[in-house]
Design brief:
Residues 214-300 form the Aldehyde oxidase/xanthine dehydrogenase a/b hammerhead domain. GO terms for molecular function: oxidoreductase activity. This is Xanthine dehydrogenase family protein molybdopterin-binding subunit. By secondary structure, the protein is α+β, with helices and mostly antiparallel strands. The protein has 20 helices and 28 strands. The chain folds into three domains: 8-213, Aldehyde Oxidoreductase, domain 4; 220-300 and 359-434, Aldehyde oxidase/xanthine dehydrogenase, molybdopterin binding domain (Aldehyde Oxidoreductase, domain 4); 320-350 and 447-709, Aldehyde oxidase/xanthine dehydrogenase, molybdopterin binding domain (Aldehyde Oxidoreductase, domain 4). The chain is 31% helix and 25% strand. The strands form seven sheets. It has a seven-stranded mixed sheet, with helices on both faces. A five-stranded mixed sheet has the order 2-1-3-4-5, sandwiched between helices. A five-stranded mixed sheet has the order 14-22-21-20-15, with helices on both faces. Helix 3 (75-87) runs parallel beside helix 5 (116-143). The longest helix has 28 residues, at 116-143. The protein starts with 7 loop residues before the first helix and ends in a 14-residue tail after the last helix.
């Protein structure tokens, strides 16, 4: 299969059968910033674990091992596109293989925070260039000429004949692997200038598209093992609840049922209990699950409703100062003394991740060894938690990556692989656990719902004081157990240059907890913070009587941001809006990328609001593939539209009540407005692109509605039909 799991040692053994192989990789002596490129032969001699590597066989076939997950964001395309640029090979000649989970070898393999390219692109460029220079040296040695007389192109090394008319000599990379494998990686090569790129920066077709359209791509649910059974689990609808008793008499009447067992899966610092039905098919397991009769013990913890959650958050914001995240000047004193302050509260809802592929995992426990196959963003966390809970050495937990049908942070978690591992150990057989859409939608973890209190004072047309408090669940409290720690993401989404011009500023976290499990969601806290930050910035601009973009520009002493704002104005026709048109804007930053958005709206004859156009300007610095960026921006806008105007996770009596897309409505193609995308061109370091376009959409939309109607929207979601 195209994403078949192969270990380094197995690959080298297989290559040895057909001939020599040239292998090059890097290792991390301290961090990704000081990675050292080294040959596989040297690594073997010194006992060093290589991080990622290139293999070139005598046939000329190039294999690249990718240590990060592919969930649609494009690393399966970007990593080879980067390496091929400096290696000078055709992209079509590269074979990509998912590497197994191995924290020691790779460092973090958590595919989150839009981190893969921005953390590794320089290393990958150097890796490709090192391999190219070694192949050039091998060719030069074969011909007895200077390396400076040689050049690489399309998987060949050519000799430039000086003053001769005949065609240059050439050698295919496959002919050079044996000689190249004996060389030491060079230190004095020169990387290309961006103006010299042939592949990077170009809208090349993705390598994984054919696999995903012809059915050969292996996702989690595609994995099949000999003797594999299938499990469906009826889990307690409230985290922390227990199984009091269960009746499986009707379940055993269904053909194919093999086991009915009680299970517990780890969820951060606690467990979720349930009953697993194991059968010879997924259908039988699910039917057996439906036939169960379970009595739950849900005593000892609160069963909250959504209304009570937000009521408590609002009360906390009115009565508590919270923990200081950032403080400068005398913001609180100025605001308290002002008779003209703005003091407003914003609310953002809990959200479900809604991946196209629901949770699933295949596990096979054997003696002291556990092997897992599944759609996971974070093999590191899977290994860590299972090792502790099941008392298995980390090196005995093998995590095989598959393609992911969407991730959005939900699959960067350990609960569903742990559950599969526990069931496999109990039944002593390989098992695939598949969650239904209803399981997926109601079990969580969810994006936390958060409320914000924003206070400010305008003086002489500029911000004199700015105070911001957030009250919502801190995901790191779940992970670390440190309940009194300030949320490290309290300012996520806020533009850092504001710190220079807003002299009196206070950003605070008001600790808030519920039994509802929460975790990362696309763009993490920026997805909610951005709504509060940029909606309030618009309110301050209105209070100052200034144009929203001019107001932001005046508070941002940063050339890159000024260029981005200029671009936003020019492409959107911001200065030329007509009567009956509402224009709104927002600018946020996360994962080292800044995105500015402009939304244009109008009122329809039936009174509803129509989104006429969205303009997006992204400054992500150095980038790989503009088509991938556009796809990620469009996906972010669609996801942001749903979260702002259509869906939320609601709780009644401590349970999520929206079980499927019938009530948790998703945007349809007819709901999507035209989206025009612009990528800023510069030579700055690379930022992320998978998430940063989501946070500015909601505030840009609600700011546009204010511009059109004069009505401020401070609570999400809202209905475009009834504004």
């Amino acid at each position: 299969m195209n994403n078949k799991q192969v270990s380094r040692r197995d690959f080298l053994k297989a290559s040895a059968v057909s001939g020599a192989v040239f292998s090059l990789g890097f290792y991390l002596p301290g961090s990704a910033n000081n990675a050292e490129i080294i040959s596989v032969a040297e690594a073997e001699n010194y006992g060093i674990e290589l991080n990622a590597w290139i293999h070139i066989e005598t046939s000329g076939k190039v294999t690249i091992f990718s240590h990060r997950s592919e969930m649609g964001q494009g690393v399966y395309q970007a990593i080879p596109q980067i390496i091929a640029e400096e290696l000078e090979v055709n992209l079509a000649d590269i074979h990509v293989v998912f590497a197994k989970g191995n924290l020691k070898r790779y460092g973090s393999q958590n595919t989150g925070g839009s981190s893969t390219i921005r953390e590794f692109y320089k290393i990958l460029l150097n890796l490709g260039a090192s391999a190219r220079e070694m192949l050039l040296q091998a060719a030069a040695g074969s011909w007895g000429v200077s390396k400076s007389e040689c050049y690489a192109q399309g998987g060949y090394v050519f000799h430039k004949p000086s003053g001769r008319i005949e065609s240059p000599k050439r050698l295919h990379y496959g002919q050079l692997v044996e000689a190249a494998s004996k060389l030491t990686p060079p230190k004095d090569y020169v990387l290309k200038k961006r103006s010299e790129y042939k592949l990077v920066g170009k809208p090349l077709l993705r390598l994984d598209t054919p696999f995903k359209t012809n059915g050969t791509a292996v996702f989690g649910m595609d994995k099949v093992l000999p003797g594999m059974l299938y499990a469906a689990v009826e889990r307690n609808p409230r985290l922390r609840g227990k199984v009091k008793s269960f009746d499986d008499s009707q379940t055993w009447k269904i053909p194919g049922i093999k086991h009915v067992i009680k299970v517990k899966m780890v969820v951060f610092d606690t467990y979720r209990e349930g009953i697993a039905v194991v059968a010879d098919s997924t259908w039988a397991a699910m039917q057996g699950k439906k036939a169960l009769k379970i009595e739950w013990d849900d005593s000892g913890f609160e069963h909250l409703n959504s209304e009570e959650i937000y009521k408590r958050q609002n009360l906390a914001l009115q009565t508590q100062e919270g923990l200081s995240f950032k403080s400068q000047g005398e913001a609180s004193e100025i605001i308290s003394a002002s008779a003209n302050k703005i003091d407003v509260v914003y609310e953002t809802p809990y959200q479900y991740h809604g991946c196209m592929e629901p949770m699933n995992c295949t596990a096979y426990y054997q003696e002291d060894k556990l092997e897992i196959w599944g759609p996971t963003q974070n093999p590191d966390m899977v290994q860590e938690y299972i090792s502790k809970d099941m008392n298995i050495a980390k090196e005995k937990i093998i995590v095989n990556l598959t393609f992911l049908g969407g991730g959005f942070g939900r699959k960067s978690f350990m609960d569903y692989p742990h559950e599969a591992a526990v069931i496999s150990r109990q039944i002593k057989a390989p098992v695939q656990v598949v969650w239904t859409r209803e399981d997926d939608a109601t079990q969580g973890p969810f994006r936390p719902g958060i409320s914000y209190r924003c206070e400010g004072v305008i003086k002489d047309g500029k911000i004199d004081a700015f105070k911001y408090r957030m009250a919502g669940q801190n995901n790191m409290h779940w992970l670390t157990g440190k309940k009194d720690a300030v949320n490290g993401s309290t300012s996520e989404g806020f533009l850092k240059p504001y710190y220079e011009t807003i002299k009196n500023l206070s950003i605070r976290d008001v600790p808030f907890a519920t039994p509802i499990p929460t975790m990362w969601w696309r763009s993490v806290y920026a997805s909610t913070n951005g709504f509060a930050f940029e909606s309030f910035m618009d309110e301050l601009a209105a209070d100052a009587g200034r144009d929203p973009l001019d107001f932001r520009r005046a508070h941002l002493n940063d050339e890159r941001l000024h260029l981005l704002i200029d671009k936003m104005e020019n492409v959107s026709g911001w200065k030329d809006k007509k009567k009956g048109e509402g224009y709104g804007t927002a600018i946020t930053e996360c994962f080292s990328t800044t995105v500015g958005e402009v939304v244009k709206v109008s009122r329809q004859a039936d009174g509803s609001i129509k989104i006429d156009q969205v303009w997006v300007v992204m400054d992500c610095g150095w980038y790989v593939n503009p088509d991938t960026i556009r796809a990620q921006i469009e996906g972010s806008i669609v996801m942001g539209l749903g979260a702002a105007t259509m869906h939320e996770v609601r709780f009644i009596d401590g349970k999520a009540v929206d079980t499927n897309f019938s009530t948790y409505q998703m945007p349809r193609i007819t709901d999507i407005p035209p989206i025009q995308i612009h990528i800023m061109e510069n030579d700055e370091v690379a930022g992320g692109v998978g998430e940063p376009a989501l946070p500015p959409f909601a505030p840009a939309l609600t700011n546009a509605i204010f511009d059109l109607t004069g009505k401020r929207i401070r609570k999400l979601p809202f209905s475009l039909a009834s504004v």
